[in-house]
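Inputs:
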Amino acid sequence: MSRMTMIQSIRSAMDTSMARDESVVVFGEDVGYFGGVFRCTEGLQKKYGSHRCFDSPINESGIIGSAIGMAAYGLRPCVEIQFADYVFPGFDQLSQEASRIRYRSNNDFTAPMVVRMPTGGGIFGGQTHSQSPEAIFAHVSGLKTVIPSNPYDAKGLLAASIEDNDPVMFLEPKRLYNGPFDGHHDRPITPWSKHELGEVPDEYYTVPLGKAATRREGEAVTVLAYGTMVYVAEAAVEETGIDAEIIDLRTILPLDIEAIEASVKKTGRCVIVHEATKTCGFGAELMALVMEGCFYHLEAPVIRVTGYDMPYPHAHEWEYFPGPKRVGAALKKVMEA
Amino acid sequence: MSEPKAADPKPLSLHVPEPEFRPGDKPDFSNVPIPKAGAARKPPIDVDAQDIHDLAYTIIRVMDREGNAVGPWAGELNDDEVKQGLEDMLRVRAFDARMQKAQRQGKTSFYMQALGEEAIACAFSKVLRSGDMNFPTYRQQGLLLSADYPMVDMMNQIYSNKADPLKGRQLPIMYSSKQHGFFTISGNLATQFIQGVGWAMGSAISGDDKIAASWIGDGSTAESDFHAAMVFASTYRAPAILNVVNNQWAISTFQGIARGKAATFASRGLGFGIPALRVDGNDYLAVYAVAKWAADRARAGLGPTLIEYVTYRAGAHSTSDDPSAYRPKTEFDAWPLGDPVERLKEYLIKRGTWSEARHVQANEMLEAQIAEANREAVKNGTLHDGPHASAKTMFEDVYEEMPLHIVRQRQEAGV
């Protein structure tokens, strides 16, 4: 066991995966010698050689397209897109190729690969370093989409993603890299060393894809969240004193529909929180599922708390970010209904 | 400060290239320079791209107009191999004609012929070894038809019937066969050009001896993925052959829209330091020799080669296309590089190992085999009449394990 940041645990997932499986290769912009702009791949080139961890040209379609070819050859590429905002030149390769190769070839070819990318705001990254595109991936059948919220899960989920035989989008909430963040940007940063989920085994382990985690048990209302919003929800619950059940989805596709249904049927209320824009965000899918599966158990309309429908603004970061105040207001509203 | 005086007061205008001939025009290619067969030099495989710029601008040709094989690229194949090549091309042509007819009869939705460009895939298939991988476009059926892939399986897929190896999930002709070195065809253009490079990188990473071949058309070289493939292939010296089939037409758009008249498609390789060869795509012997040179380079760890095959799409783009709406009907007849089947036939006749009678006989035999395969395939069903794979299979293989949301959708569908 070691105390790790999310950066260290993500690195440890790649390190232990590369050590046990020679077919795992890591590449992307700046990931080789330098170790990535967030340092997630630091030391891997030195340890495993430049044929297994290397820099790529600045071409996301090339990174993802070549990874598809490598995966079809028999390797397990785990590639880094420097920011989720930059993935879109590779979207054709994801939505039309990686996601369909198994299906269209009737299992003759597959694309076991992971596309890692830092996601979300809270670091004054402006509109090109802050986006949360998870719903766009979840809309593509054939892709899996994972969003961890802590170092322990990040390592286990990334190792499971690398082991998985389907293409996995692995979104790393960059504001969580160095510590849990509850949206109180004016308070001192809590490091992972002070959080129980910063305790990470050094050896290889996996956390299964498609299983949600209950971060707080409660009876009054279910909060569905993932990534950074898990801590925002925790802060809001603490500040309002409402006995909420907080579910960290961890994987949005495949989704732990049964865990969601069980919780909402129990509490009869539901608040959905995500940082991405609201319209057609993943919260819309969650709300639809709750309506389909739990309508007769609901005591109040379901509420979404999300980023607003506009590009992520630079100066107004904290007015835009769905912080504990907005989540707390939603909790109160859903309880009053 | 005085304003600099404009040299030319004319307003700017946009240059939109136009093909030389449109419907009703009499096509005349006499102004297109066709280099003499045998004139292009053959460099050693470890040559630097910068030392063979000329080969990206010429047309490497082996067969002259009299049916002789001449020059440094000649002499790669013996008579039996060439006869096999001719038979392969005849098979593709006859298969295409039969399947085109089947589409017209309503047995399937769609078909695409390779008419006029059969030499490229048929000759290329002979330079790859078992375990190598093609990343083809939709007009390389010759790769499968000149290998031992069963024609019945191809037809089962074209008919999307109950024996379709892809369970009716893909369009007709978008084949997939790992065993035959044929990567699942996408249908989205250019995406596979970079995937082939990635596959080749995988082979190199693994210390393997396998090579990959990526395929693209003249029009699709305009896609960003062409650039992605070139930069990755060049950077990592991927053991890949980058094939550009320049058949002059991207549906109704002539090849000038993908490049202007500025340069050849082959010359695109030079900016990446990739050796680039431009070859007569209707010359089976030249295609084989050039492809072999590129395969030898890749296997020797010398990296990628870009090849432009100059050919002509003699048929429609697909069964949904009518080329008489945008080009003269007689353009293929006037095409200066001729018909690949006729040219190879003349070569073999000149060699004394073939005759018009044997040619007719070979064609009849192939047509009989194709008719027999078609009878077998039709027994398994056709697109509109069925039977198809069970509708239950539609829900399978989206993922390795079916997730709950798809399980529920299948239950809802009641299959």
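Chain A is about 35% helix and 20% strand. Flag for discussion at group meeting.
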